[in-house]
């Protein structure tokens, strides 16, 4: 399949048994779901500009997340024994990559990932791997935060062959190592992301009017309290206009917020990246003015945390 092509594969193989992987370190399963027929995006290569080459596969989809007592183990040390177990069970290795080779932020947010706090992906330290056996697919995302590891596995089998899944009753542990300062800091410490809801942009506008923005002041406080943490500012638009123009507008909105954070609050430039995702991640409907206004926003995402 040529890079960048979007394909839909319907799995017709005989129902396969559950894929049971033993985690290489002490672990607790914090999320599990099984659907008799659903779709799952499988990356077949790294980001190519703003596009991710994928195959969209359909069948029974079983997704699990484990949190591991990783200690000093690297993401490769966590992934390697899982990969070896799959290969020994007859799976063939497909595409795999790590962090910036994958495409960093853009790659991670193009995938089907369970949201925090169950699954946390450190955008400065993660690995991705795919496997194929007959017409079954298996994907893994492995990341870590401080001494805690995160592993998301997704198995796509024949339609209707739903695996029995159970979710652990243990409490979900949020990414460690962050001081929760203020409302935004609390959200970032718990889930890794927050909306900067007082940054208001008219349709088509990329500049923030001169004002005091409480959300940026709070974000600056959070970054000062967590001097090793880095973040990404992610711009969004409503659905007015074309995709290419909105991608550029959303990036410039994030750039406007970053300029205030750096120039107005003295945050080091290398601690704040900017990205734009256009109208591809709405939080409200785009057929009302209230919905469009909500979609024109900037979010902050934690990209790395201190050990």
Automatic annotation (TrEMBL):
Name listed for the protein in its UniProt record: OprF_3 protein
Keywords annotated in UniProt: Cell outer membrane, Membrane, Signal
Species of the source: Jannaschia aquimarina
Superkingdom per UniProt: Bacteria
Main localization (coarse): membrane
Locations listed in the record: Cell outer membrane
Keyword Signal included in the entry's annotation: yes
Family matches, as InterPro entries: Bact_OuterMem_StrucFunc (IPR050330), OMP_bac (IPR006664), OmpA-like (IPR006665), OmpA-like_sf (IPR036737)
Gene3D superfamilies, per the entry: OmpA-like domain
SUPFAM superfamilies: OmpA-like
GO (cellular component) term, any one: cell outer membrane
């Amino acid at each position: 399949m040529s890079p960048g092509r979007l394909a839909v594969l319907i799995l017709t193989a005989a129902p396969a048994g559950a894929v049971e992987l033993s985690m290489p370190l002490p672990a607790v399963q914090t999320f599990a779901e099984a659907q008799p027929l659903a779709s799952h995006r499988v990356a077949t290569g790294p980001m190519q500009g703003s596009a991710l080459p994928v195959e969209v596969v359909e069948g029974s989809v079983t997704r699990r997340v484990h949190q591991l007592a990783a200690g000093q183990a690297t993401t490769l040390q966590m992934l390697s024994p899982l990969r070896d177990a799959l290969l020994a069970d007859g799976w063939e290795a497909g595409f795999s990559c790590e962090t910036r080779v994958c495409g960093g932020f853009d790659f991670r947010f193009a995938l089907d990932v369970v949201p925090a706090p169950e699954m946390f992906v450190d955008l400065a330290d993660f690995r991705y791997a795919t496997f194929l056996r007959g017409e079954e697919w298996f994907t893994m995302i492995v990341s870590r935060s401080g001494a805690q590891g995160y592993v998301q596995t997704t198995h796509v089998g024949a339609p209707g062959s739903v695996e029995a899944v159970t979710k652990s009753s243990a409490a979900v542990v949020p990414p460690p190592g962050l001081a929760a300062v203020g409302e935004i800091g609390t959200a970032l410490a718990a889930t890794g992301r927050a909306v900067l809801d007082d940054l208001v942009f008219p349709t088509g506008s990329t500049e923030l009017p001169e004002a005091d923005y409480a959300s940026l002041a709070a974000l600056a406080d959070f970054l000062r309290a967590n001097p090793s943490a880095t973040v990404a500012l992610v711009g969004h638009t409503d659905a007015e206009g074309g995709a290419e123009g909105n991608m550029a507008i959303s990036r410039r909105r994030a750039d406007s917020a970053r300029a205030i954070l750096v120039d107005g609050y003295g945050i080091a430039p290398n601690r704040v990246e900017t990205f734009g995702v256009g109208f591809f991640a709405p939080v409200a409907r785009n057929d009302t003015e209230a919905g469009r206004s909500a979609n024109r926003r900037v979010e902050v995402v934690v990209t790395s945390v201190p050990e």
